[in-house]
Amino acid sequence: MQDPYYWVPVPGVDIQEPLTGKLIVLEGTDGVGRSTQIRMMRNWLESSGLPIHDTGLRRGTLAGRHIREAKEGHTMGRHTQCLFYATDFADRLQNEIIPALRSGYIVLTDRYIYSLIARAAVRGLDRDWLRKLYGFAVRPDLILYLNTSIEKLLPRVLASGGFDYWESGMDHLGEESMYEAFVRHQSALLEEFEHLSEEYGFVRIDAGNSVAEVFGSLKHEVKTVVEAMTPRTHEFTEFVGEIGPAPDLEDQEVGSMAERLRDLLFSFLEDR
Amino acid sequence: MLMLQASGQYPGRLFVVEGIDGSGKSTQIRLLYKWLLSMRYSTFFSEWNSSPLVKRTTRRGKRKHLLTPLTFSLIHATDFADRTERNIIPPLKAGAAVLADRYIYTALARDAARGCDPAWIRAEYSFAVKPTVGFYFRVPLEIAVERILEGRPELKYYEAGMDMNLSDDPYESFRLFQERIVAQYESMVDECGLTVIDGTLPIIEQQRAVRQIIEPFLDGLLRMPEGAWMSPLEVGDV
Protein backbone atom coordinates (compact mmCIF):
# COMPACT_ATOMS: atom_id res chain seq x y z
CA MET A 1 0.00 0.00 0.00
CA GLN A 2 1.13 3.53 -0.70
CA ASP A 3 2.30 5.62 2.24
CA PRO A 4 -0.68 7.73 3.36
CA TYR A 5 1.56 10.77 4.00
CA TYR A 6 3.80 12.46 1.48
CA TRP A 7 6.86 12.53 3.67
CA VAL A 8 6.40 12.45 7.46
CA PRO A 9 3.41 11.40 9.54
CA VAL A 10 1.62 13.95 11.69
CA PRO A 11 3.14 13.64 15.17
CA GLY A 12 0.86 11.92 17.64
CA VAL A 13 -1.29 10.39 14.91
CA ASP A 14 -1.14 6.61 14.79
CA ILE A 15 -0.08 5.73 11.25
CA GLN A 16 -1.34 2.15 11.69
CA GLU A 17 -4.92 3.23 12.17
CA PRO A 18 -6.50 3.00 8.71
CA LEU A 19 -8.11 5.92 6.93
CA THR A 20 -11.24 4.21 5.66
CA GLY A 21 -12.70 7.26 3.91
CA LYS A 22 -11.57 8.87 0.69
CA LEU A 23 -9.86 12.20 0.22
CA ILE A 24 -10.89 14.02 -2.93
CA VAL A 25 -9.32 17.35 -3.77
CA LEU A 26 -10.63 19.94 -6.17
CA GLU A 27 -7.90 22.30 -7.33
CA GLY A 28 -7.78 25.18 -9.75
CA THR A 29 -7.12 28.91 -9.82
CA ASP A 30 -9.49 31.60 -8.59
CA GLY A 31 -12.83 31.93 -10.37
CA VAL A 32 -12.66 28.60 -12.12
CA GLY A 33 -15.93 27.40 -10.62
CA ARG A 34 -14.73 25.14 -7.85
CA SER A 35 -17.37 25.97 -5.26
CA THR A 36 -20.27 25.39 -7.65
CA GLN A 37 -18.88 22.00 -8.58
CA ILE A 38 -18.27 21.09 -4.93
CA ARG A 39 -21.89 21.92 -4.07
CA MET A 40 -23.18 19.74 -6.90
CA MET A 41 -20.77 16.96 -6.05
CA ARG A 42 -21.89 16.99 -2.45
CA ASN A 43 -25.55 16.73 -3.41
CA TRP A 44 -24.87 13.95 -5.84
CA LEU A 45 -22.79 11.85 -3.45
CA GLU A 46 -25.08 12.35 -0.49
CA SER A 47 -28.11 11.43 -2.51
CA SER A 48 -26.20 8.30 -3.48
CA GLY A 49 -25.99 7.50 0.23
CA LEU A 50 -22.38 8.46 0.86
CA PRO A 51 -21.27 10.52 3.87
CA ILE A 52 -19.55 13.74 2.82
CA HIS A 53 -17.44 16.21 4.70
CA ASP A 54 -16.59 19.32 2.75
CA THR A 55 -13.90 21.79 3.70
CA GLY A 56 -11.66 24.48 2.24
CA LEU A 57 -8.76 26.80 2.97
CA ARG A 58 -8.82 29.27 5.85
CA ARG A 59 -11.70 27.49 7.55
CA GLY A 60 -9.68 26.29 10.53
CA THR A 61 -10.75 27.27 14.03
CA LEU A 62 -7.23 28.08 15.17
CA ALA A 63 -5.92 30.60 12.66
CA GLY A 64 -8.57 31.07 9.96
CA ARG A 65 -10.04 34.29 11.31
CA HIS A 66 -6.67 35.86 12.08
CA ILE A 67 -5.40 35.14 8.56
CA ARG A 68 -8.44 36.90 7.12
CA GLU A 69 -7.81 39.90 9.38
CA ALA A 70 -4.12 39.99 8.57
CA LYS A 71 -4.89 39.92 4.86
CA GLU A 72 -7.04 42.99 5.23
CA GLY A 73 -4.04 44.86 6.61
CA HIS A 74 -1.64 43.47 3.96
CA THR A 75 1.02 43.21 6.62
CA MET A 76 2.53 39.77 6.10
CA GLY A 77 5.88 38.91 4.60
CA ARG A 78 5.94 35.93 2.25
CA HIS A 79 7.40 33.33 4.61
CA THR A 80 5.06 34.50 7.35
CA GLN A 81 2.03 34.32 5.10
CA CYS A 82 2.99 30.87 3.88
CA LEU A 83 3.54 29.48 7.37
CA PHE A 84 0.32 31.04 8.65
CA TYR A 85 -1.56 29.16 5.93
CA ALA A 86 0.36 26.01 6.75
CA THR A 87 -0.73 26.35 10.39
CA ASP A 88 -4.36 26.69 9.36
CA PHE A 89 -4.01 23.73 7.02
CA ALA A 90 -2.38 21.55 9.68
CA ASP A 91 -5.16 22.48 12.13
CA ARG A 92 -7.83 21.39 9.65
CA LEU A 93 -5.93 18.28 8.65
CA GLN A 94 -5.65 17.07 12.22
CA ASN A 95 -8.95 18.20 13.64
CA GLU A 96 -11.17 17.76 10.63
CA ILE A 97 -9.79 15.83 7.68
CA ILE A 98 -8.06 12.92 9.41
CA PRO A 99 -10.92 12.26 11.88
CA ALA A 100 -13.45 12.36 9.01
CA LEU A 101 -11.34 9.95 6.94
CA ARG A 102 -11.07 7.64 9.95
CA SER A 103 -14.84 7.63 10.30
CA GLY A 104 -15.23 6.64 6.66
CA TYR A 105 -16.30 9.99 5.21
CA ILE A 106 -15.55 11.15 1.72
CA VAL A 107 -13.72 14.38 2.35
CA LEU A 108 -14.22 16.86 -0.47
CA THR A 109 -11.81 19.69 -0.15
CA ASP A 110 -11.91 22.95 -2.05
CA ARG A 111 -8.14 23.31 -2.68
CA TYR A 112 -5.40 21.57 -0.78
CA ILE A 113 -1.67 21.98 -0.33
CA TYR A 114 -1.17 22.50 -4.06
CA SER A 115 -2.82 25.93 -4.13
CA LEU A 116 -0.82 26.88 -1.06
CA ILE A 117 2.40 25.71 -2.69
CA ALA A 118 1.60 27.44 -5.99
CA ARG A 119 0.79 30.78 -4.33
CA ALA A 120 3.97 30.69 -2.27
CA ALA A 121 6.09 29.61 -5.25
CA VAL A 122 4.92 32.51 -7.42
CA ARG A 123 5.92 34.79 -4.56
CA GLY A 124 9.44 33.46 -4.91
CA LEU A 125 9.62 30.88 -2.13
CA ASP A 126 11.77 27.82 -2.64
CA ARG A 127 9.81 24.92 -4.17
CA ASP A 128 11.81 22.25 -2.43
CA TRP A 129 11.22 23.96 0.92
CA LEU A 130 7.48 24.11 0.23
CA ARG A 131 7.29 20.46 -0.72
CA LYS A 132 9.02 19.44 2.47
CA LEU A 133 7.04 21.84 4.64
CA TYR A 134 3.79 20.24 3.47
CA GLY A 135 5.28 16.75 3.70
CA PHE A 136 2.88 15.90 6.55
CA ALA A 137 -0.16 16.16 4.28
CA VAL A 138 -2.31 13.10 3.67
CA ARG A 139 -1.95 11.81 0.13
CA PRO A 140 -5.34 12.29 -1.61
CA ASP A 141 -7.12 9.45 -3.39
CA LEU A 142 -7.96 11.80 -6.24
CA ILE A 143 -6.81 15.29 -7.23
CA LEU A 144 -9.11 16.93 -9.73
CA TYR A 145 -7.61 19.94 -11.43
CA LEU A 146 -10.02 22.38 -13.05
CA ASN A 147 -7.83 23.74 -15.75
CA THR A 148 -8.44 26.87 -17.78
CA SER A 149 -6.73 29.75 -19.55
CA ILE A 150 -6.47 33.39 -18.55
CA GLU A 151 -8.70 34.41 -21.47
CA LYS A 152 -11.52 32.24 -20.18
CA LEU A 153 -10.89 33.22 -16.58
CA LEU A 154 -11.22 36.99 -17.08
CA PRO A 155 -14.96 37.16 -17.85
CA ARG A 156 -15.73 34.98 -14.84
CA VAL A 157 -13.68 37.14 -12.52
CA LEU A 158 -15.37 40.28 -13.80
CA ALA A 159 -18.77 38.67 -13.38
CA SER A 160 -18.08 37.69 -9.79
CA GLY A 161 -17.15 41.05 -8.31
CA GLY A 162 -13.96 42.02 -10.13
CA PHE A 163 -10.31 41.88 -9.13
CA ASP A 164 -9.15 41.08 -5.64
CA TYR A 165 -5.95 42.50 -4.12
CA TRP A 166 -4.46 39.10 -3.18
CA GLU A 167 -5.75 37.14 -6.15
CA SER A 168 -4.07 39.73 -8.35
CA GLY A 169 -0.78 39.35 -6.48
CA MET A 170 -0.69 43.10 -5.76
CA ASP A 171 1.35 42.34 -2.64
CA HIS A 172 4.38 41.18 -4.63
CA LEU A 173 4.15 42.42 -8.19
CA GLY A 174 4.18 46.19 -7.94
CA GLU A 175 2.12 46.50 -11.11
CA GLU A 176 0.37 49.69 -11.98
CA SER A 177 -3.17 48.35 -11.91
CA MET A 178 -4.86 45.24 -10.66
CA TYR A 179 -5.57 44.16 -14.23
CA GLU A 180 -1.90 43.80 -15.27
CA ALA A 181 -1.11 42.30 -11.90
CA PHE A 182 -3.97 39.83 -12.19
CA VAL A 183 -2.89 38.62 -15.61
CA ARG A 184 0.74 38.23 -14.57
CA HIS A 185 -0.08 36.62 -11.24
CA GLN A 186 -2.66 34.16 -12.57
CA SER A 187 -0.44 33.21 -15.53
CA ALA A 188 2.35 32.43 -13.10
CA LEU A 189 -0.06 30.38 -10.99
CA LEU A 190 -1.21 28.38 -14.01
CA GLU A 191 2.39 27.64 -14.86
CA GLU A 192 3.04 26.54 -11.31
CA PHE A 193 0.01 24.25 -11.44
CA GLU A 194 1.47 22.66 -14.57
CA HIS A 195 4.58 21.60 -12.62
CA LEU A 196 2.50 20.41 -9.68
CA SER A 197 0.13 18.52 -11.95
CA GLU A 198 2.95 16.36 -13.20
CA GLU A 199 4.60 15.92 -9.85
CA TYR A 200 1.53 15.02 -7.82
CA GLY A 201 -0.52 13.32 -10.51
CA PHE A 202 -3.49 15.65 -11.05
CA VAL A 203 -6.46 14.54 -13.14
CA ARG A 204 -7.06 17.43 -15.51
CA ILE A 205 -10.57 18.57 -16.26
CA ASP A 206 -11.20 21.27 -18.83
CA ALA A 207 -13.01 23.99 -16.91
CA GLY A 208 -13.76 25.88 -20.12
CA ASN A 209 -16.77 23.63 -20.79
CA SER A 210 -20.26 24.19 -19.44
CA VAL A 211 -20.99 23.62 -15.76
CA ALA A 212 -22.92 20.44 -16.60
CA GLU A 213 -20.15 19.08 -18.83
CA VAL A 214 -17.51 19.78 -16.22
CA PHE A 215 -19.67 18.10 -13.60
CA GLY A 216 -20.08 15.08 -15.87
CA SER A 217 -16.30 14.70 -16.17
CA LEU A 218 -15.82 15.13 -12.44
CA LYS A 219 -18.50 12.53 -11.67
CA HIS A 220 -16.82 10.07 -13.98
CA GLU A 221 -13.52 10.40 -12.09
CA VAL A 222 -15.05 10.42 -8.63
CA LYS A 223 -17.05 7.31 -9.37
CA THR A 224 -13.91 5.26 -9.91
CA VAL A 225 -12.68 6.23 -6.45
CA VAL A 226 -15.87 5.84 -4.43
CA GLU A 227 -17.55 3.03 -6.34
CA ALA A 228 -16.67 0.38 -3.77
CA MET A 229 -18.10 2.54 -0.98
CA THR A 230 -21.66 2.89 -2.25
CA PRO A 231 -24.28 1.17 -0.11
CA ARG A 232 -25.63 -0.65 -3.17
CA THR A 233 -22.94 -0.95 -5.76
CA HIS A 234 -23.39 1.02 -8.99
CA GLU A 235 -26.54 2.70 -7.83
CA PHE A 236 -25.36 6.24 -8.29
CA THR A 237 -28.06 8.75 -8.85
CA GLU A 238 -28.16 10.17 -12.32
CA PHE A 239 -28.37 13.86 -11.65
CA VAL A 240 -28.18 16.34 -8.84
CA GLY A 241 -31.24 16.60 -6.65
CA GLU A 242 -32.70 13.19 -7.39
CA ILE A 243 -33.29 11.28 -4.19
CA GLY A 244 -31.14 8.23 -4.55
CA PRO A 245 -30.88 5.07 -2.50
CA ALA A 246 -31.03 6.88 0.81
CA PRO A 247 -30.53 4.97 4.06
CA ASP A 248 -33.73 3.35 5.38
CA LEU A 249 -33.84 5.62 8.38
CA GLU A 250 -34.51 8.62 6.22
CA ASP A 251 -37.24 7.01 4.12
CA GLN A 252 -39.86 8.20 6.55
CA GLU A 253 -38.74 11.78 6.28
CA VAL A 254 -38.46 11.67 2.50
CA GLY A 255 -42.01 10.31 2.38
CA SER A 256 -43.41 13.05 4.54
CA MET A 257 -41.59 15.70 2.53
CA ALA A 258 -43.12 14.29 -0.69
CA GLU A 259 -46.53 14.32 0.96
CA ARG A 260 -46.15 17.91 2.00
CA LEU A 261 -45.15 18.89 -1.51
CA ARG A 262 -48.16 17.09 -2.93
CA ASP A 263 -50.44 18.83 -0.45
CA LEU A 264 -48.92 22.14 -1.42
CA LEU A 265 -49.42 21.44 -5.11
CA PHE A 266 -53.05 20.39 -4.58
CA SER A 267 -53.84 23.47 -2.56
CA PHE A 268 -52.25 25.58 -5.27
CA LEU A 269 -54.37 23.89 -7.99
CA GLU A 270 -57.51 24.24 -5.91
CA ASP A 271 -56.93 27.93 -5.45
CA ARG A 272 -56.96 28.34 -9.21
CA MET B 1 21.43 18.10 8.81
CA LEU B 2 20.48 21.69 9.37
CA MET B 3 20.96 23.99 6.36
CA LEU B 4 20.36 27.70 6.90
CA GLN B 5 20.66 30.91 4.89
CA ALA B 6 24.22 32.23 4.93
CA SER B 7 24.60 35.27 7.19
CA GLY B 8 27.67 36.38 5.23
CA GLN B 9 25.41 37.86 2.56
CA TYR B 10 24.52 40.70 4.98
CA PRO B 11 26.85 43.34 6.36
CA GLY B 12 25.34 42.94 9.86
CA ARG B 13 26.03 40.25 12.46
CA LEU B 14 23.62 37.97 14.25
CA PHE B 15 24.33 36.75 17.78
CA VAL B 16 21.92 34.41 19.49
CA VAL B 17 21.69 32.85 22.94
CA GLU B 18 20.10 29.48 23.60
CA GLY B 19 19.57 27.20 26.56
CA ILE B 20 16.75 25.94 28.74
CA ASP B 21 14.83 28.24 31.05
CA GLY B 22 16.98 29.09 34.03
CA SER B 23 20.27 28.71 32.17
CA GLY B 24 21.05 32.40 32.57
CA LYS B 25 21.07 33.20 28.84
CA SER B 26 18.78 36.24 29.10
CA THR B 27 21.00 37.84 31.73
CA GLN B 28 23.98 37.35 29.46
CA ILE B 29 22.38 38.79 26.34
CA ARG B 30 21.19 41.82 28.27
CA LEU B 31 24.74 42.52 29.39
CA LEU B 32 25.94 42.02 25.82
CA TYR B 33 23.34 44.47 24.54
CA LYS B 34 24.46 47.19 26.93
CA TRP B 35 28.09 46.61 26.04
CA LEU B 36 27.48 46.92 22.29
CA LEU B 37 25.44 50.09 22.77
CA SER B 38 28.14 51.57 24.96
CA MET B 39 30.49 51.17 22.00
CA ARG B 40 27.94 52.96 19.79
CA TYR B 41 27.15 49.90 17.68
CA SER B 42 23.68 49.96 16.17
CA THR B 43 22.16 47.04 17.99
CA PHE B 44 18.78 45.48 17.51
CA PHE B 45 17.22 43.18 20.09
CA SER B 46 14.74 40.48 19.13
CA GLU B 47 12.74 37.96 21.17
CA TRP B 48 10.33 35.06 20.55
CA ASN B 49 6.59 35.66 20.54
CA SER B 50 7.20 39.27 19.73
CA SER B 51 5.18 39.39 16.52
CA PRO B 52 1.89 41.23 17.09
CA LEU B 53 0.38 39.59 14.01
CA VAL B 54 0.62 36.00 15.16
CA LYS B 55 0.40 36.69 18.86
CA ARG B 56 -3.37 36.48 19.00
CA THR B 57 -3.53 33.10 17.30
CA THR B 58 -0.79 31.72 19.53
CA ARG B 59 -2.44 33.09 22.66
CA ARG B 60 -5.82 31.72 21.65
CA GLY B 61 -4.36 28.32 20.83
CA LYS B 62 -2.54 28.17 24.15
CA ARG B 63 -5.42 29.41 26.26
CA LYS B 64 -7.90 26.99 24.77
CA HIS B 65 -5.39 24.15 24.44
CA LEU B 66 -6.10 23.93 20.69
CA LEU B 67 -2.52 23.25 19.70
CA THR B 68 -1.15 19.87 18.67
CA PRO B 69 2.61 19.29 18.32
CA LEU B 70 2.28 20.02 14.60
CA THR B 71 0.28 23.25 14.88
CA PHE B 72 2.38 24.32 17.89
CA SER B 73 5.44 23.99 15.68
CA LEU B 74 3.88 25.79 12.71
CA ILE B 75 2.43 28.73 14.61
CA HIS B 76 5.81 29.34 16.25
CA ALA B 77 7.49 29.06 12.85
CA THR B 78 5.01 31.65 11.55
CA ASP B 79 5.94 33.95 14.38
CA PHE B 80 9.59 33.32 13.73
CA ALA B 81 9.14 34.10 10.03
CA ASP B 82 7.51 37.40 10.87
CA ARG B 83 10.36 38.14 13.24
CA THR B 84 12.89 37.23 10.54
CA GLU B 85 11.25 39.33 7.84
CA ARG B 86 10.62 42.30 10.11
CA ASN B 87 13.26 42.35 12.84
CA ILE B 88 16.20 40.28 11.71
CA ILE B 89 16.88 40.64 7.98
CA PRO B 90 16.29 44.43 7.69
CA PRO B 91 18.73 45.39 10.50
CA LEU B 92 21.24 42.84 9.18
CA LYS B 93 21.00 44.48 5.77
CA ALA B 94 21.55 47.84 7.42
CA GLY B 95 24.73 46.52 8.98
CA ALA B 96 23.58 46.33 12.60
CA ALA B 97 24.34 43.86 15.36
CA VAL B 98 21.21 41.79 15.89
CA LEU B 99 20.79 40.01 19.20
CA ALA B 100 18.26 37.23 19.63
CA ASP B 101 17.14 35.81 22.95
CA ARG B 102 16.32 32.27 21.75
CA TYR B 103 16.41 31.37 18.10
CA ILE B 104 15.43 28.40 15.94
CA TYR B 105 17.34 25.99 18.19
CA THR B 106 14.65 26.50 20.83
CA ALA B 107 12.06 25.36 18.31
CA LEU B 108 14.18 22.48 17.04
CA ALA B 109 14.66 21.20 20.59
CA ARG B 110 11.10 21.79 21.78
CA ASP B 111 9.32 20.41 18.70
CA ALA B 112 11.52 17.32 18.56
CA ALA B 113 10.82 16.77 22.27
CA ARG B 114 7.11 16.89 21.36
CA GLY B 115 7.56 14.19 18.75
CA CYS B 116 7.80 16.13 15.48
CA ASP B 117 10.09 14.56 12.92
CA PRO B 118 13.59 16.12 13.33
CA ALA B 119 14.27 16.18 9.57
CA TRP B 120 10.93 17.89 8.95
CA ILE B 121 11.55 20.57 11.62
CA ARG B 122 14.98 21.27 10.12
CA ALA B 123 13.37 21.73 6.71
CA GLU B 124 10.66 23.94 8.21
CA TYR B 125 13.24 26.37 9.64
CA SER B 126 15.70 26.30 6.75
CA PHE B 127 14.64 29.82 5.70
CA ALA B 128 16.29 31.19 8.87
CA VAL B 129 19.53 33.16 8.73
CA LYS B 130 22.47 31.29 10.23
CA PRO B 131 23.78 33.16 13.28
CA THR B 132 27.28 34.58 13.27
CA VAL B 133 27.64 33.02 16.71
CA GLY B 134 25.08 30.81 18.46
CA PHE B 135 25.76 30.47 22.18
CA TYR B 136 24.44 27.53 24.15
CA PHE B 137 24.37 28.03 27.91
CA ARG B 138 24.86 24.61 29.38
CA VAL B 139 23.65 23.99 32.94
CA PRO B 140 22.85 20.74 34.72
CA LEU B 141 19.12 20.08 34.52
CA GLU B 142 18.61 20.11 38.29
CA ILE B 143 20.16 23.56 38.67
CA ALA B 144 18.02 25.03 35.88
CA VAL B 145 14.82 23.49 37.18
CA GLU B 146 15.60 24.73 40.67
CA ARG B 147 16.22 28.28 39.38
CA ILE B 148 12.89 28.29 37.54
CA LEU B 149 10.72 26.67 40.14
CA GLU B 150 11.86 28.74 43.08
CA GLY B 151 10.90 32.02 41.46
CA ARG B 152 7.68 31.10 39.74
CA PRO B 153 5.52 28.36 41.15
CA GLU B 154 2.72 28.65 38.55
CA LEU B 155 3.61 26.72 35.37
CA LYS B 156 1.69 27.21 32.16
CA TYR B 157 0.13 24.25 30.33
CA TYR B 158 2.41 24.08 27.28
CA GLU B 159 5.42 25.40 29.16
CA ALA B 160 5.17 22.42 31.51
CA GLY B 161 4.69 20.11 28.52
CA MET B 162 1.31 19.03 29.93
CA ASP B 163 0.07 18.40 26.37
CA MET B 164 2.36 15.36 26.14
CA ASN B 165 0.87 13.53 29.12
CA LEU B 166 4.26 12.89 30.64
CA SER B 167 2.87 13.26 34.15
CA ASP B 168 -0.25 14.62 35.84
CA ASP B 169 1.92 16.72 38.11
CA PRO B 170 2.93 19.95 36.32
CA TYR B 171 6.28 20.11 38.12
CA GLU B 172 7.16 16.54 37.30
CA SER B 173 5.95 17.07 33.72
CA PHE B 174 8.08 20.22 33.43
CA ARG B 175 11.14 18.38 34.66
CA LEU B 176 10.65 15.48 32.23
CA PHE B 177 10.01 17.90 29.36
CA GLN B 178 13.14 19.92 30.13
CA GLU B 179 15.13 16.70 30.31
CA ARG B 180 14.09 15.86 26.75
CA ILE B 181 14.90 19.39 25.60
CA VAL B 182 18.37 19.27 27.12
CA ALA B 183 19.03 16.00 25.27
CA GLN B 184 18.01 17.73 22.04
CA TYR B 185 20.24 20.75 22.71
CA GLU B 186 23.21 18.51 23.46
CA SER B 187 22.77 16.68 20.18
CA MET B 188 22.66 20.01 18.32
CA VAL B 189 25.94 21.40 19.68
CA ASP B 190 28.06 19.66 17.03
CA GLU B 191 25.43 19.41 14.32
CA CYS B 192 24.63 23.14 14.37
CA GLY B 193 28.02 24.44 15.49
CA LEU B 194 26.83 26.02 18.75
CA THR B 195 29.36 27.67 21.06
CA VAL B 196 29.02 26.24 24.55
CA ILE B 197 29.28 28.49 27.61
CA ASP B 198 29.36 26.93 31.05
CA GLY B 199 26.26 28.37 32.69
CA THR B 200 27.42 27.39 36.17
CA LEU B 201 30.31 29.86 36.08
CA PRO B 202 29.91 33.24 37.78
CA ILE B 203 27.89 35.67 35.62
CA ILE B 204 30.85 38.02 35.16
CA GLU B 205 33.07 35.26 33.87
CA GLN B 206 30.47 34.05 31.42
CA GLN B 207 30.06 37.58 30.11
CA ARG B 208 33.82 37.96 29.71
CA ALA B 209 33.90 34.78 27.62
CA VAL B 210 30.94 35.92 25.50
CA ARG B 211 32.51 39.31 24.78
CA GLN B 212 35.84 37.72 23.89
CA ILE B 213 34.18 35.47 21.33
CA ILE B 214 32.13 38.25 19.79
CA GLU B 215 34.74 40.97 19.60
CA PRO B 216 36.44 39.81 16.36
CA PHE B 217 33.10 40.04 14.52
CA LEU B 218 32.36 43.64 15.39
CA ASP B 219 34.69 45.28 12.93
CA GLY B 220 32.80 47.16 10.23
CA LEU B 221 29.38 47.13 11.90
CA LEU B 222 27.18 50.20 11.68
CA ARG B 223 27.86 52.71 14.45
CA MET B 224 26.00 55.68 15.74
CA PRO B 225 27.71 59.02 15.10
CA GLU B 226 29.85 60.37 17.90
CA GLY B 227 27.36 63.00 19.07
CA ALA B 228 24.51 60.57 19.22
CA TRP B 229 26.21 58.51 21.89
CA MET B 230 23.77 57.21 24.45
CA SER B 231 24.87 56.12 27.87
CA PRO B 232 23.99 52.48 28.51
CA LEU B 233 22.49 53.72 31.77
CA GLU B 234 19.90 55.69 29.79
CA VAL B 235 18.92 52.83 27.54
CA GLY B 236 15.62 51.26 28.47
CA ASP B 237 15.48 47.70 29.67
CA VAL B 238 15.06 44.90 27.17
Question: How would you sum up this structure, described in words?
Answer:
The complex is a heterodimer of chains A (272) and B (238). With 272 residues, chain A is of the alpha/beta class. Chain A folds into two domains: 22-241, Rossmann fold (3-Layer(aba) Sandwich), CATH 3.40.50.300; 248-272. Helices cover 51% and strands 10% of the residues of chain A. A five-stranded parallel β-sheet of chain A has the order 2-3-1-4-5, with helices on both faces. Mean pLDDT of chain A is 80; it is low at 240-260 and 266-272. With 238 residues, chain B is α/β, with parallel strands linked by helices. Chain B has one domain (12-219): Rossmann fold, CATH 3.40.50.300. Chain B contains eight helices and five strands; from the N terminus they run E-H-E-H-H-E-H-H-E-H-H-E-H. In chain B, strands 2-3-1-4-5 form a five-stranded parallel β-sheet, sandwiched between helices. In chain B, helix 4 (104-113) crosses helix 7 (170-191). Chain B is globular. Chain B starts with 12 loop residues before the first strand and ends in a 24-residue tail after the last helix. In chain B, 44% of the residues are buried. The model of chain B has no long low-confidence stretch (mean pLDDT 89). Classes of the chains: A alpha/beta (272), B alpha/beta (238).
Summary tags:
heterodimer; A: alpha/beta; Rossmann fold; five-stranded parallel sheet; 51% helix; disordered C terminus; B: 238 residues; alpha/beta
Task: Please write out the topology.
The complex is a heterodimer of chains A (272) and B (238).
Chain A: E1 22-27, H1 34-47, E2 52-56, H2 64-73, H3 78-102, E3 106-110, H4 113-122, H5 127-133, E4 142-147, H6 150-159, H7 170-173, H8 178-200, E5 203-206, H9 211-226, H10 251-271
Parallel strand pairs in A: 1-3, 1-4, 2-3, 4-5
Helix pairs in contact in A: 1-9, 3-4, 4-8
Chain B: E1 13-18, H1 25-38, E2 43-47, H2 52-63, H3 69-94, E3 97-101, H4 104-113, H5 118-124, E4 133-138, H6 141-151, H7 170-191, E5 195-198, H8 203-214
Parallel strand pairs in B: 1-3, 1-4, 2-3, 4-5
Helix pairs in contact in B: 1-8, 2-3, 4-7, 6-7
